[in-house]
Amino acid sequence: MLGPTGGPYHHPLPPNPVPYHDQVPTTSHPSWHTASYSGLPTPPYHPYPPPQAQPPPNYPPMPPQQHPPHLQMTSHQPQMTQLLTQQQLQQQQQIQQNQQQSSAYSSPSHAPSTPIQNQKARTEQWVQSWPYAQSPAPSVAPSVMSYHQNDDRMSMLSVNTSMTNQFPDSQRCFSSNGSTCENVNPEMAQTNWAQGAEQAIIEWFNTKDPQRKFNMAMTIREWVKRDKMVQVDPAQLPGCIQRLLLIIHDGMKPLQIQVPPNYYPQLWCYLLDVLNRLTSYRITIPNIHQIVQLFEPKGNQQYEFRDLICNAMQPTLVCAKQVFDILENIIKCLNNPKYDKLRSDFARSLKFEKMIGALLGLLSQQIPPSQINPTILVVLRFIISKDAVLKNCLIWGPDRQRDQVPPQSILMLLKGILMRSEHMLRNSQNANFPDQESMNRNFQEMSLLAQVVTRAFDLLNLLMHDSNAIDGFVKVDGIQLIYTIINYPISNVVRSGFKLLLQVSDSRSLCLTNLKEPLPFIMQRLRDSLMNGEDDIVYSGTGFLSNVVAHKLPVKELAIAKGAIPLLCDVIMRSTPLSDFAEASKKKLACGIVCNSLRAMNNFLMMWIPMQNGQRMPIGEYEQQQVRRFIEEVLKRLMTCLSMDSFDVVPLMELRSTILRFFFLVSRTPSMPADIFFGVTDDFKRKNLVGHIAIALSWADGQKTNEKIKDTRQQLIERAFSLLVRLIEQYDEVQVAHSLYTISCPLNMLNNEQMKPQFILNVLRVCDRILEHSPMLANGWSIYSSTVEMFKNHSNPDIARTASSLLARFPIGDSAMDEGILHTSEFTEL
């Protein structure tokens, strides 16, 4: 049984069940035997085998019907006929005779436009055709039919219930208006479908007749559609799914006998619809592993399912959409982390030459982008994910040279799709639509086109896995193509385009690209996204800007001339304070936006900082005013970020390290006043910059070291001491020393054997200056005198000299403290 034995929808089969091919419906209309399915041709099908001779049906006579009032002759008719010519009178009489003849056999509202004899002949021929006569539920009683106007299709009016009483009264429902029309009880119809599907599942592999298999597939599909597998016993559900999968696999195989050309597409539609529903019903998703196993290679088996399903991908077939719906449903289901292994197995099953060739063939230039199924790009992205060898093969082909992208590369294929898509978007934007229907049709087409462009960008983003691939994309005018497409205000397209821009922004070939047009436009789109609150686009845009201005001086000058510094200031002001964001994900994204903005500013500041040989680019008055205004507006916000409560260690560690790097470069920039470091305090803790640096330093030292934050933590500590040394040497060391009065001794950070010499020197210098202006701290810090003793004879003369100066500030005799105490001291937060 397909389901539980109880309930109104499932009853055990009778002791002598009616054979599948002898089941009798309660209506003789042929449409009862054919489950409706959009996209399939309507009956009659091509006869196979040759039609058998059937006696013509004898329709029961019907009583003559009265003419409707609008067809009856009135008293004014003789007067009107006198005004007509003899020829016109004959034509009118002929029309009236035709109306009288048609009224005896059809509804007045469906008068035939062709002679009844021809329509009757076509109807009898259709009824006697092979699909109707060989139906698993043949008709047993003629029905009264009405002709449709202009064709020979039939619609049911009534049924002779005395001849079709195949079910007891409890299973039948009668019309409430007292007519003789009868229908099957919907609840019992559900049971009939379940019983028919069960019989079809049992007899499938014992049947060689293609038409019977076709009807079985229709029955199974209709049952799955109606029942949704809900009534199946949960204990029997895996076995039921497995039997359905075996039937689907068998039905996709070619038959040994010849069948009509449209047989396979129609059969595949029913079978693949069943598989599509199995991948989408919530009750069957826990058994997704059975469907994944269906795609696995079976060794030397002649007809593997993964090979057969490639045959159904042809764009001319209706079932092609079902194939991609199935693949997309499986991929979405396997995105769950608990299916990681199953996801890898499914990707491995799809990774074979015929599948990849079929997918790439569907992206050819002969297909308009609006007719491309977006799922094709999703499946390709799923297959090549985490496979660098396959990515290189698709990009470069068999050639090992990586200096030029070959014409058959997937990059060129996607570029062609994007270029044709941009052409369609431009035409749609400039088009004038005559009516609302045309406008709606264009809207649907552009929505599908936007999905194609978005997923093409996502696939390109995945293909940019190394510097060679990125350079190859940039060399084929990839930047120009992206900025042209994101000109159209489609949010998903703009979002994916900016992600791709960020991915290719550190290309070596970008220095050879003319950015006079793309860069100002990208900055304007960044402003628009900032005003619209599109934080993900702002993140990608600021990341692109920080990378693109990193090396080439003309690009930096172009960005500054187009207002990059005020733009970055607005971005930081809108992304801070971080406490305004309630969700942790929003705070994390804001940290990334501020980091990208500060990195871009750092690249600008590097232009005006003197190099080791003393040469530097002079800073102009306009640029100097912009930098000062930037610092004045964001200084308090950045200080707050250094000392705010921790919410997520990894992004906050990166943000604080970037802020310290920014302040260090500002301190080295000429013409920057000292009051920006000491004269400004925040509105919460009332501390200047040095006080916030001390808090960030204590916070970083107190974090537990792990692989995620190990390098960033050490980088933050090194940048903090570099900035403190810079403030001590170039500005006011007294204020720095007094601001660090309550800090715990930094000498406990010198217990790592892999420390950089510059970091050791900076720590010793800061400690020496603090003890110089606060000698009362020497007694507490003297427990680290043994650590300082190790650097007294260091090979670096600056380290040795600073260590000796620091030892002289410790009390005499305290250098013999127990070595174990050196490693027990911890930083205490202010």
Overall body shape: elongated
Separation, N- and C-terminal Cα atoms? 74 Å
Which ranges are low-confidence, i.e. pLDDT below 50, for 5 or more consecutive residues? 1-89, 99-185, 814-830
Give a count of the beta strands, DSSP E runs of length 2 or more. Answer: 4
Q: What would you call the structural class?
A: mainly alpha
DSSP strand content: under 5%
- Global mean pLDDT: 78
The profile of the biggest β sheet is: 2 strands, antiparallel
Strand order of the largest sheet: 1-2
| Count of separate DSSP helical elements | 35
The radius of gyration over CA amounts to 40 Å
Assign a percent range to the helix content. 40-55%
Summarize the structure in words.
Residues 41-67 have a biased composition (Pro residues). Residues 1-125 are annotated as: Disordered. By secondary structure, this protein is mainly α. Among the domains are: 365-479; 741-830, Arc Repressor Mutant, subunit A (Orthogonal Bundle). The chain is built from 35 helices and 4 strands. It has helices at residues 77-82, 86-103, 116-127, 130-133, 186-203, 210-227, 237-252, 263-278, 288-294, 305-311, 320-333, 340-350, 353-361, 375-384, 388-396, 410-430, 436-463, 467-475, 478-485, 491-504, 518-531, 535-548, 553-561, 564-575, 584-605, 621-643, 649-668, 675-678, 689-701, 710-730, 733-739, 757-773, 778-781, 785-789, 797-807; strands spanning 144-147, 154-158, 172-174, 182-184. Strands 1-2 form a two-stranded antiparallel sheet. α24 packs parallel to α26 (621-643), α30 (710-730) crosses α31 (733-739) and α31 crosses α32 (757-773). Residues 1-89, 99-185 and 814-830 have low confidence and may be disordered.
